[in-house]
Specification:
Helix 3 runs parallel beside helix 4 and helix 9 crosses helix 12. It contains 14 helices and 14 strands. The strands form three sheets. It has a six-stranded parallel sheet with strand order 2-1-3-4-7-8, sandwiched between helices. The protein is of the alpha/beta class. The chain has two domains: 235 residues, Glycogen Phosphorylase B (Rossmann fold, 3-Layer(aba) Sandwich), CATH 3.40.50.2000; 143 residues, 3-Layer(aba) Sandwich (Rossmann fold), CATH 3.40.50.
């Protein structure tokens, strides 16, 4: 089988890139052919046989002239249509697997795929993995960055709310472009050509299902994760947070909980804009951003880890990873987080943003060693899809 993996970034940049690289490698390992289409970039590490890519669109470092042309290019890209056609003609894929494509590549590539398969009488299947809420929310997060509140006003297709709320970078102009982009492609009905929408959580599926066009085509499959070697490790007296120090991650709520619980030791491992907020709190130790075995040891030794997010998380790897290392998770009951925790067995849930409820959960594990140990043991029985198991499900979708 020939699979064309489409993503705007073809270099390590975030979760969607990790996804396409690992899935692509797994497909190749099973004997399938994989090529990639996206933007050209000096860090690009995958590609296609004809070296056809769109020019790099850097919204942050572009010249004034480039920025003047970007608004139209983010809605419709003739360049992207022309370049992907070169790849389609050469590679002749059986499946085009779309990932993040809005704004840089634009949905215009879908029109070219449809045109190509019609002209060549091919059954090329179009599959899309939703890494965020972009197709139902122009700022992709269902969260207003100005008020830090979760928002579903656009979910019914009323994308003008993006402009009203200045939801893209706090800018009326940028938000208006987002509104135009979403409205234009909705009116053209372009997304009807996508054969299957893969959502990484039931929660995300429920949001995409708000569009009747998507509802009959969505499927929820949790993300895959690399198996973790189980190492029996003595627990130490601290609660761990690892991740980004930012507003939407619920850091302020967690910091307030720490202030109210001076008897509990907290370790924070990460970085972000709210890092200074950690200063001066005696029971918080900020060890900075950690990776690899150093992070693994921090997770293994913690009594519990906390995932206090206050936005609609999809399928956070940190929640899965913590439990696989034998550490129960205290998670906010928001987004896809509840789907990953067996409450009372491998962790606890509390109402997102509720400091009192968070403190209660922390106390429950901190003061009850027997419960903490039982949760640690229960984590041994927990499993999530490996890349091989995930691949088996994806291949069924490809061949459906």
């Amino acid at each position: 089988m020939k699979v064309l993996m489409v993503n705007k970034f073809l270099y390590p940049n975030g979760g969607s890139e990790t996804y396409i690289f690992k899935l692509g490698a797994a497909l190749v390992g099973e004997g399938h052919q994989v090529e990639y289409f996206g933007m050209e970039h000096e860090g690009r590490c995958v590609g296609n046989n004809v070296d056809a890519y769109t020019s790099d669109m850097d919204f942050h470092n572009a010249s004034k002239l480039e920025k003047m042309t970007y608004p139209l290019k983010t809605i419709y890209s003739k360049d992207a249509r022309n370049k992907i056609r070169l790849v389609l003609d050469d590679f002749k894929p059986d499946v085009v697997h779309l990932n993040n494509f809005n704004y840089q590549l634009t949905p215009s590539i879908i029109l070219e795929i449809v045109k190509w398969r019609k002209e060549n009488k091919r059954k090329c299947r179009i599959v899309f993995t939703a890494h965020d809420y972009q197709l139902v929310c122009p700022n992709h997060m269902c969260n207003n960055p100005n008020t830090h509140e979760n928002c579903e006003k656009c979910l019914g297709g009323n994308f003008i709310n993006c402009t009203k709320g200045k939801c893209i970078h706090g800018s009326t102009a940028k938000s208006f472009i987002g509104t135009l982009e979403a409205t234009y492609w909705k009116k053209r009905g372009t997304y009807k050509y996508i054969d299957k929408f893969i959502c990484c959580s039931q929660f995300m599926k429920s949001k995409l299902d708000s569009n009747p066009l998507f509802a009959k085509k969505t499927v929820a499959i949790h993300n895959f994760i690399k198996p973790v070697k189980w190492v029996e490790t003595a627990k130490e007296d601290y609660i761990l947070y690892f991740g980004r120090y930012s507003e939407e991650k619920g850091i302020r709520t967690l910091i307030e909980a720490a202030r109210r619980m001076p008897e509990v030791n907290f370790i924070f491992a990460g970085k972000g804009p709210l890092e200074n907020e950690l200063s001066g709190i005696e029971n918080i130790e900020n060890v900075g951003f950690k990776t690899g075995e150093e992070l693994a040891n921090l997770i293994r030794k913690a009594k519990a880890s906390i995932y206090p997010s206050e936005w609609y998380e999809n399928c956070p790897f940190s929640v899965m990873e913590s439990q696989l290392f034998g550490t129960p998770v205290i998670g906010a009951d928001i987004g896809g987080i509840p789907e990953l925790i067996r409450v009372g067995e491998t962790g606890l849930l509390y109402r997102s943003g509720d400091v009192d409820a968070l403190c209660d959960c922390i106390h429950e594990i901190w003061q009850d060693d027997a419960k903490a140990k039982a949760m640690h043991e229960a984590c041994k029985t927990l499993s999530f899809d490996t890349i091989d198991e995930y691949l088996e499900k994806i291949l069924k979708i490809y061949q459906d």
